Amino acid sequence: MASRVVSCTTCGTRNRVPVTAGGRPRCAACHADLPWVVDVSGTEFAAAVEGSAVPVLVDVWAPWCGPCRQVSPVVEQLGRENAGRLKVAKVNSDLAPEVAVRHNISGIPTLLLYSGGREVSRVVGAQPAGQLRRWLTDALASI
């Protein structure tokens, strides 16, 4: 099973967080909610995103994309700020073109918000951190 190592924002302990899991990840040491930021392949998309018990912020990006590299730290920060309430799934469109095709993505970065197995909101292009935070807050409130 694919996973990513993240540091607990409360105690600093490094924890392995799986791409797919029931519930939400918690720190092994202090039991605080962990930021759930994972890389998702095209074959993992359905289980990791559509099958998630918590809302998922999907970041469709590519390594050669400058705006994607600008947005990425903001997306990961939003994941840390919403630990326990949100999962962040990073999808490299070069490695998972089927995800981009399925979602009719014509420009990157594209951020998709999934809840209950379906897309509920999207943002295309690089946006300032404050604007992305407002979009996510408003979208989560409407779920």
Summary of the model, kept short:
This is Thioredoxin. Helix content is 29%, strand content 27%.
Description:
This protein has 4 helices and 7 strands. The N and C termini lie far apart (30 Å). With 143 residues, it is an alpha/beta fold. It has a single domain (35-141), classed as Glutaredoxin (3-Layer(aba) Sandwich), CATH 3.40.30.10. The longest helix has 16 residues, at 66-81. Helix content is 29%, strand content 27%. Strands 3-5-4-6-7 form a 5-stranded mixed beta sheet. The protein has a two-stranded antiparallel ribbon with strand order 1-2. The chain is globular, with a radius of gyration of 14 Å. The mean pLDDT is 94.
Itemize the secondary structure elements and their pairings:
Layout: E1 3-7, E2 14-18, E3 36-39, H1 45-50, E4 56-61, H2 66-81, E5 87-92, H3 97-102, E6 110-115, E7 118-124, H4 129-141
Parallel strand pairs: 3-5, 4-5
Antiparallel strand pairs: 1-2, 4-6, 6-7
